[in-house]
Automatic annotation (TrEMBL):
The protein's name: Carbon monoxide dehydrogenase
Binding, [Ni-4Fe-4S] cluster: H265, C299, C337, C450, C480, C528
Cofactor(s) needed by this chain: [4Fe-4S] cluster
InterPro entries linked: CO_DH_a-bundle, CODH, HCP/CODH, Prismane-like_a/b-sand, Prismane-like_sf
Pfam families, sorted: Prismane
Binding residues for [4Fe-4S] cluster 2: C52, C55, C60, C74
UniProt lineage: Bacteria, Bacillati, Bacillota, Bacilli, Bacillales
Gene Ontology BP, a term: generation of precursor metabolites and energy
Organism: Tepidibacillus decaturensis
Amino acid sequence: MKEKLLSVEDLTIDTGVQQMILKSRDEGVKTAFDRNSEIGARCTFGELGVCCKRCLAGPCRILPGGKGPQTGVCGATADQIVARNFLEMVAQGMAPHIEHAREVALTLLETAEGKAPYEIKNPEKLINIASRLGLTVDGKEIEEVAKDVALKALESFQQQYGILPWLEMNANQKTLARWKELNIIPANAHQELTVAINRVTMGSDADPVNLLLGVMRLGITDGYAGLHLSTDLQDVLFGTPGLVKSKYRLGVIKEKMVNISVHGHIPMLADKVVEWAEKLEDEAKAVGAEGINVFGICCSANEVLMRKGIPVATNFASQEAPILTGAVEAMAVDIQCVMPSLPTVSNDYHTEVITSLPYSKIPGASHIEFTPAKADEVAQAVVRKGIANFGKRDPEKMQIPPEIVDAYAGFSTEQIVEALKNVNPEDPLKPLVDNIKAGNILGVVALVGCTNPRVKQDWANVEMAKELLKHNVMVVATGCSAHSLGKFGLLSSEGLEYCGDGLKQVLTAVGQANGMEALPSVLHMGSCVDNSRIADLVSALADYIGVEAKDLPVAGSTPEIMNPKALAIGAYFLAHGVDVHVGIMPPIGGSELVTNVLTGSKEEHELTTDGLFGGKVIYEKDPIEAAHVVIERIKQKRAELFGE
Ligand code: XCC
Ligand code: SF4
């Protein structure tokens, strides 16, 4: 087996992770990188999306290239099978976001009712949201307002007619009118999900184009009932992020401290673990540690990085690496992107993996059940388990890669506007828009999404960012993609060396107006649900110029996409007419029709998302090539907007 393994330089550009992969091989432990090699070439039918398992008459699969059967038993064609599979995959990507939102809404409700130990950290934002929702705020206690907002949010899950409240309060009127014409306005997130699953069942919706409109509808639902709702209510409960300085890479794990990792997505537990790690510091000292060090992985990391400056060890693909350092006492996980391999890997080390949700358990992990009401108890128990495990380290197995990189984060839309106010207090967006018009900033690209063991880790994300920066494209980032950039200095002014002159000038001028040497080369805007912040920024720019998002020289890019959640976010961008670059092709290649609708430009095909919405999917594996395709589209949009 060993000779088939790839060299670590081909697997990741993170040298610390390279060391940990070598260590895992020495110790006979398997990581995602080596499991990926073992899996080898992927099933062609699966990759093309032409395998249908919708009923027990199947599974049916269509042989590519016109040879062999071209329909399933029921007569379903490749176009129909691919479109149904894709809709289902996007629904699967949306469900986690709307569950996330629902749990945050319930936490706000319980907090307002005094049943959960959280505070309303940002009452101004709460009042602003309440007013925009049309709720009365005058003469009400803040808890009452919180309760009203939480109940209104929960309506997103039951209202039978009309329009999603978070969509109504945020959307651009022209965009909304277009969506109305296409009949893709969602009323309630749960209904959208059940309707989506209903329409893809055996013998239901068989019109590929109608199914793809369904994908857009899910994208809209994901963005407003999932992302926006989550971010808004999390800001209310945990505070709106502002500029923070932090650190990246495995070197954030501290040899002499009790190391506890938070991992997953929903910030309720992660935030409390950070709080209790501070409060229980003395107990750690009593067992001989210098203190307690909390660090993050994946989007839990983003939540506590953005608000509290907590350092980040790594992102999705290398989430097993911290365990391999032999210096992590506990890993508290909630849900999504948590590899079921973690307890298996930790069998050989002293790390205790702790699951926390009743619907997300892993054999071999400890389980402490989290509810918002029990948040303090659970977080204390997690921290105490970490402290208790400190003495169980095996010094022979300890190896912490020393590299550590400085990074800035916390760029919420509010923080960005604040920074711009220090340049132009009366009209903060003016300098940004002026620089876009003048071409000092060619456009804006949101670098989002994951890392994926199928792509050399961090490489595509980093190369894409550098190439864009070089051509004066402003880059904002979220998710694991932001972590990739953080690990390689792009979230600090160190990254300015990669920027073209125009962009460099702008970042330096705005930075200096804010008492910094310069802004970081890439602005970290948060977790994956915080793609709503990017949408807010884009909407603000569009409103300022008096156009729609689709008219702006902006795009999204997810070079190392892994989770279908990123497809749902992609559909959200697309519905707004924003191009989406993917570095890995979603399973649609088995249908020319579906591929054309999503990736064709309006000049090439009559019916495309480009024609209907103004944005398309760009598939390109090579990040440098991809950057250039995106730049060309940005130039096209500039030409139409500014008559260049
Ligand atoms: Fe998961 Fe959010 Fe992707 Fe990272 S970026 S692998 S979805 S943790 Ni969201
Ligand atoms: Fe086969 Fe049709 Fe059943 Fe799919 S729905 S498995 S194509 S019979």
